[in-house]
């Protein structure tokens, strides 16, 4: 029989036992004495409980406690040793890459991880409510609203949204996963927010992802990140990312960009413009963005920047073309409103200096921004503007009316004028304090860090702009947008009644226009490359008793003939068609009534505002 071995805890318990008399004169303890001595020190009356349990149940709980204590000590020391060994191993034999939550990669990695098996089988995941954009929710042809329509056939958005499952991503902590035969560790952690970081009025914690792999090189992780970037790009390749300056109420620091959304890239052919007009802009930007251009500019000492001024009445496609350009060239679009009251010149300069290598910066409604020079230069610039305004009237078009003072009025003009005057009343003082003309010019000219960007400024009133703002070098090409011509009206009609599956034939567009463009003036000679913009054949959707695509074309012709040339903006025509979006025949029937009503309303407003 093996002899039961006594454990010598004498040194451990010497302090506890110092007051205790030893009956047999030895310091050795048995298992029952061990917890009694220790627990006695922590739990007053423990020996009484022990004796009571022994008397009543005849069971010595000290044995269980002793064994428990030994197991606990064993596990703790193994864990301690393991941690030490792991720390040593990871220090010398593992590599890590950290990704901050302010980086785009953070979301890409999270999304990729969420799509992996590891997130599906993990027992510790974070559920994130899916907040997709409207366009992600359904296709146009998903007509079976079945369960989300109420008895009256009304679409209920809450019901619809409730059907979208949440996204599951790994929770904070370490998670292992395999990629291309290698093991990686994904560690997501959170750092307490500093007082400067606010989101929705409360401090927002910062998050960090650590990707680790075995080996002394980060190459496998870099490969993984390359893969994730391409995965993410493939997913988003049809999207245009839109960024705006971070709202100062959310962050103490101004002059920082944040991603507001991404939306499907606007196909160039959905912007109805003169093909030559599009071609000229496309060719110019295409040449500018070519990888060999920076060297070309550098060799000639020219700052590598390109600026465009899109001007014309409201609703004629200036913003639409900017987004379509971003889509076609795969650029992100950075939108700045100079009317933002909290925007300072320092912020503006930071924003420009933190632009990526290639992007489109969109400065909208630049004329309403209340940019001012000192009074002297104001006078001289207004003189020069008056002269320019006169010369513009020579161009005719829809720019100015007979007396050369006011523009032709449209509903959009009216809305815009009211909006602008409100804005001016509300913000002119703020803006004067915030952004001056020289502040904007400094930001645009800036240091070399934002070379490579495409600057697009839009305005309804180019004649109000200071010459300094639109001089060559700051604005290299001006593009004038006009009210809808008959051809454009026709195109808008056909596009409206064709489904996504159908391709609309675009009027032939190549990137280099052989004929000079009436509406476009370029300050620099144009490019050489001539990639072509696709023009495909079509069939239109059959709607509203239209039996063939040629019927649609015929109706479109009649529709276009019903509207006077260059009187309505594409936005106005689109607005009319949208309210009859599945009924081309009805649109044709009702267009004359709409036309007369709108002309009358414009006339009335013209009289009220005393505009010719
Ligand atoms: N040339 C066009 N081709 C296709 N759609 C157009 C065109 N012009 C305007 N639209 C439509 O009208 C709406 C407004 O257009 P957009 O915002 O591009 O006009 P804008 O000229 O930038 O106006 P604003 O000067 O008021 O900012 C958009 O929904 C757009 O689809």
Automatic annotation (TrEMBL):
<feature type="compositionally biased region" description="Polar residues">
    <location>
        <begin position="510"/>
        <end position="527"/>
    </location>
</feature>
<dbReference type="InterPro" id="IPR057495">
    <property type="entry name" value="AAA_lid_BCS1"/>
</dbReference>
<feature type="compositionally biased region" description="Low complexity">
    <location>
        <begin position="528"/>
        <end position="537"/>
    </location>
</feature>
<keyword id="KW-1133">Transmembrane helix</keyword>
<dbReference type="InterPro" id="IPR027417">
    <property type="entry name" value="P-loop_NTPase"/>
</dbReference>
<dbReference type="InterPro" id="IPR003593">
    <property type="entry name" value="AAA+_ATPase"/>
</dbReference>
<dbReference type="InterPro" id="IPR050747">
    <property type="entry name" value="Mitochondrial_chaperone_BCS1"/>
</dbReference>
<keyword id="KW-0067">ATP-binding</keyword>
<feature type="domain" description="BCS1 N-terminal">
    <location>
        <begin position="65"/>
        <end position="271"/>
    </location>
</feature>
<keyword id="KW-0472">Membrane</keyword>
<feature type="region of interest" description="Disordered">
    <location>
        <begin position="503"/>
        <end position="537"/>
    </location>
</feature>
<dbReference type="GO" id="GO:0005743">
    <property type="term" value="C:mitochondrial inner membrane"/>
</dbReference>
<dbReference type="InterPro" id="IPR014851">
    <property type="entry name" value="BCS1_N"/>
</dbReference>
<keyword id="KW-0496">Mitochondrion</keyword>
<dbReference type="Pfam" id="PF08740">
    <property type="entry name" value="BCS1_N"/>
</dbReference>
<protein>
    <recommendedName>
        <fullName>BCS1 N-terminal domain-containing protein</fullName>
    </recommendedName>
</protein>
<dbReference type="GO" id="GO:0005524">
    <property type="term" value="F:ATP binding"/>
</dbReference>
<feature type="region of interest" description="Disordered">
    <location>
        <begin position="373"/>
        <end position="410"/>
    </location>
</feature>
<feature type="transmembrane region" description="Helical">
    <location>
        <begin position="57"/>
        <end position="82"/>
    </location>
</feature>
<keyword id="KW-0812">Transmembrane</keyword>
<feature type="domain" description="AAA+ ATPase">
    <location>
        <begin position="304"/>
        <end position="485"/>
    </location>
</feature>
<dbReference type="Pfam" id="PF25426">
    <property type="entry name" value="AAA_lid_BCS1"/>
</dbReference>
<keyword id="KW-0547">Nucleotide-binding</keyword>
<comment type="similarity">
    <text>Belongs to the AAA ATPase family. BCS1 subfamily.</text>
</comment>
<dbReference type="InterPro" id="IPR003960">
    <property type="entry name" value="ATPase_AAA_CS"/>
</dbReference>
<keyword id="KW-0378">Hydrolase</keyword>
<dbReference type="InterPro" id="IPR003959">
    <property type="entry name" value="ATPase_AAA_core"/>
</dbReference>
<keyword id="KW-0999">Mitochondrion inner membrane</keyword>
<dbReference type="Pfam" id="PF00004">
    <property type="entry name" value="AAA"/>
</dbReference>
<dbReference type="GO" id="GO:0016887">
    <property type="term" value="F:ATP hydrolysis activity"/>
</dbReference>
